Amino acid sequence: MSSNGATDQGKTTLEYSELQSSRLRVSLPLPEVLRNSFNVIDGPPSSAAGNPDEIVKLFPNLFGQPSAEVVPGVTPTTMSNQSLKIGVVLSGGQAPGGHNVISGLFDYLQDRAKGSSLYGFKGGPAGIMKCKYVELTTNFVYPYRNQGGFDMICSGRDKIETPEQFKQAEDTVKKLDLDGLVVIGGDDSNTNACLLAENFRGKNLKTRVIGCPKTIDGDLKSKEVPISFGFDTACKIYAEMIGNVMIDARSTGKYYHFVRLMGRAASHITLECAFKTHPNITIIGEEVAANKYTLKNITDYITDLICKRAELGYNYGVILIPEGLIDFIPEVQQLISELNEILAHDVIDEGGMWKKKLRSQSHQLFEFLPQAIQEQLLLERDPHGNVQVAKIETEKMLMEMVETELNSRRNQGLYEKQFRGQSHFFGYEGRCGLPSNFDSNYCYALGYAAGALLDSGKTGLISSVGNLGAPVEKWTVGGTALTSLMDVERRHGKFKPVIKKAMVELEGAPFKKFASLRDEWALKNRYISPGPVQFVGPTANDLSHTLMLELGAKA
Amino acid sequence: MSSNGATDQGKTTLEYSELQSSRLRVSLPLPEVLRNSFNVIDGPPSSAAGNPDEIVKLFPNLFGQPSAEVVPGVTPTTMSNQSLKIGVVLSGGQAPGGHNVISGLFDYLQDRAKGSSLYGFKGGPAGIMKCKYVELTTNFVYPYRNQGGFDMICSGRDKIETPEQFKQAEDTVKKLDLDGLVVIGGDDSNTNACLLAENFRGKNLKTRVIGCPKTIDGDLKSKEVPISFGFDTACKIYAEMIGNVMIDARSTGKYYHFVRLMGRAASHITLECAFKTHPNITIIGEEVAANKYTLKNITDYITDLICKRAELGYNYGVILIPEGLIDFIPEVQQLISELNEILAHDVIDEGGMWKKKLRSQSHQLFEFLPQAIQEQLLLERDPHGNVQVAKIETEKMLMEMVETELNSRRNQGLYEKQFRGQSHFFGYEGRCGLPSNFDSNYCYALGYAAGALLDSGKTGLISSVGNLGAPVEKWTVGGTALTSLMDVERRHGKFKPVIKKAMVELEGAPFKKFASLRDEWALKNRYISPGPVQFVGPTANDLSHTLMLELGAKA
């Protein structure tokens, strides 16, 4: 391992706050099984999450391979004891802890495969395709230990999809003579990692591929991968803000705060933040979809509660809304697809004649929307001419619809207070915070484990660290066959492999616990304010409620 | 002191996070001078901050009174050793630490004036006028120790202004037989406190009045009142978020984040957050006003820097904007006053003929504004029919103006990148956080000192704790004559007393330091991420940069 090689580009411009510096100096514990001699052993053969008959066709070389477990061992181990050439890439949105995955991988190579080289592909998968990389040395890696962000090598959202792109990836791993590649990413990126592993194996390349579960959204998880990294820290940061806003609401007694939280596909973040803070209303997208709620239903639900609280003397409250809410509402999806059709072919006349082309329910919904949202739907389109749903500020939209409904009730003598809304979106603030102790330690173990898996010749696995309810030293370590997480989706007439996003399960322990508490939170003010993430002290090692409930439910 | 009196209404519904509980148990240190026997001694006579000839007319009984200092003493002290009846009120917006002022006052009475009663007026000054109060007992006060928010007795923005209102206040203090009243508030509230003190003294009532300096904005300070409480915590919370967003910006490399920060009148928060995080651009309202910058100037300043950074390969950045920015721009003030005039008397025709009534510069400015802002200015008016300046989302307005300018430069071949903006407003999140160690300790000392000042017969003073660069035990304690902070303003043909807001001084140490650093921050990426407030560990007792620089500048 050359720690002062010619490619060493340790950024000298990094500056640190006192807390960042102090975090840098904190040493990282490893699970006991990784601290001593270990072997990597195979479990029973695996299948797929769905449609194994199709998965086996898509992954003929990898399908069915067993998951792996790291167990205490004595020499001779399954480890190579040889130097390795490994690449690593960060894929997709930031999540606190990514740097520690790289640190863990780096330290594995330092500890167990002396003389190895680690290459960091820059800017995400595009870095693999363009062979843009930096050699990661001690000087380069160390300054990012326990630090937030992905700025060590940055990330990107490109995908390796076409035959040409796979060829580029092959060229890169051949050029760098890579023994292995670690892909740190979400469900899509890990699917991609598995396709790369299959491709390399199919072509008899020596390069193995291991994935690592990253996403603040918490929607990449399974029995063997209990949580994705970043979720813990992001939720803690959002909950700090929500808790502060709650105490503010109770102190002023005159505002309803509508808080939108990151998490487009699944509502795990919103649910976890609800456990941490006890808001009056929490909208869970999966429940909205399951019950086919309309926007009017949701508006009424909120408005009813505001009226009930007014009767109890409370003219304030806090409402949590998942970022992806409107994607969960079937009628909105219908309206948007009709709008896309109309916008593509027709003229939007000022007189509104175009609206006659909408189906009756869609027309009704369109008229129900606040004017600003109507305009946004008609005016702001993406490069393909489609409505930009992601740009809609759902919290403001709901706030306005609730206000309109309250005004109408006031006119009927059903509501007498003055409604004042405040809207918030907590998103980017949570993706790059200093990782919590949990994410710091979890990521370090994930990265170290990825090194061990590669070193023992594994490919197509996702690094899996378990028993997370126990102290770090008792954590279990292994790798789960990526194909075992796969199902297929039909796109453009073809089967595509996908790792299904783990949604909030309405029959799961976390949602059920929430459902049993929310009525009390709604009318009584059970606010709790978790405060800022602490790195030392009694709260420093708290786990997320979601994880604890899921661990308990499985026990 | 009845700790279980009939009026004890300790809220049993309060719930705590683990961190809140642990903060509750933390004991509060007192400055050494308050721990032992002490005397309160007078300094030299005082004058006024401006127009003493008018201040003496407005405060004939109080003008010129000396400031007071608490010094080590032996019995007989100036303390009464008798039980007291004291009222306390929280006035205006929340600031972290308010509960500890009350705790300090309460503990003073417990320690030094046994048998005393403390009444908390509910919902701000309206509570005084309506005699709405709660007796504060040990059980009532204790659960709020070191906790954020003002929810112990809540706050309000009413003012005691008219002769009828002063009469109501008199009735209340007579009814409760109050020896003293502590007003916890900002510049306005402390002016009001001084008027009450003058009024009570003029009418030979025994009720003394002591103020305490509260505001997260940091614009209530003087030589003897080095900082208002809440500023420290609020800036730390905002800076945590800004730091996170910065690392995100550096990691993705594709966003400019426009961050608006609370602070309507003065830009202290924005300046302090700049020191804590090193953003690429920081707009300081006071500098904008002093240089009579136009919106176009500010837009160009930002746009120029974005272009320069693009040349250096940076297509991202972070820009801090004070909430009150547009109040500092003379041309905007002019436009708004013209709009108010026109909106009051004329019809806004769709053809835009009404715009001819605007002066040429105002017309130009109006056309320069983004359409959404134009509409907001015309449509959203307060109950008096005036334009609602406070509702304008300055960060979005600037972002849009910058984008428009960049598009125009792109058309001229001067800018080639794609600009993507993200906007944030950090406001309510910072007002009710768990108070930092500094604010916890500072507030406790302020409250304890207020008790001592009242007990020694003082009135019309603001509780003053100094030598804040030293450890708590070495802090100095006293009271500053509120009249000495006063000047007059002419309103409706009359002189009104005001405590002038302490603005960012362009010749002061903090701004000068900032000005010497900002060019480097602009082009090099010197981001630092302060991370979440810590209550233990190496960063737990950090002071604000602003305070340290001001202390240094005075030394």
- Given as residue ranges, the uncertain stretches of chain A (5+ residues, pLDDT < 50) are 1-12
Strand content of chain A: 5-15%
Largest interface by residue count? A-B, 61 and 61 residues
Query: What does the main sheet of chain A amount to?
Result: 10 strands, mixed
The overall pLDDT of chain A, averaged over residues, is: 93
N→C terminal distance of chain A: 43 Å
Shape of chain A: globular
What helical percentage do the residues of chain A reach?
Answer: 40-55%
Oligomer: homodimer
Helix count of chain A, per DSSP? Answer: 20
Taking all Cα atoms into account, the compactness measure Rg of chain A is 25 Å
Look at the helices and sheets of chain A and give the structural class: alpha/beta
Tally of strands of chain A: 16
Which features would summarize this protein structure in a list?
disordered N terminus, alpha/beta, homodimer, 20 helices, 555 residues, globular, four-stranded parallel beta sheet
Please characterize this protein's 3D structure.
Chain A has 555 residues and is an alpha/beta fold. The first copy, chain A, contains 20 helices and 16 strands. In chain A, strands 1, 2, 3, 4, 5, 6, 7, 8, 13 and 14 form a ten-stranded mixed sheet that branches. The first copy, chain A, has a four-stranded parallel sheet with strand order 10-11-9-12, sandwiched between helices. Residues 1-12 of chain A have low confidence and may be disordered. Chain A is globular, with a radius of gyration of 25 Å. In chain A, helix 4 packs across helix 18 (437-455), helix 9 packs across helix 10 and helix 13 (330-345) packs across helix 14 (360-368). At the A-B interface, helix 1, helix 9 and helix 17 of A face helix 1, helix 9 and helix 17 of B. Chains A, B: GO terms for molecular function: 6-phosphofructokinase activity; diphosphate-fructose-6-phosphate 1-phosphotransferase activity; metal ion binding. Chains A, B: Its EC number is 2.7.1.90. Chains A, B: It catalyses: beta-D-fructose 6-phosphate + diphosphate = beta-D-fructose 1,6-bisphosphate + phosphate + H(+). Chains A, B: Pathway: Carbohydrate degradation; glycolysis; D-glyceraldehyde 3-phosphate and glycerone phosphate from D-glucose: step 3/4. Chains A, B: Its main location: cytoplasm.
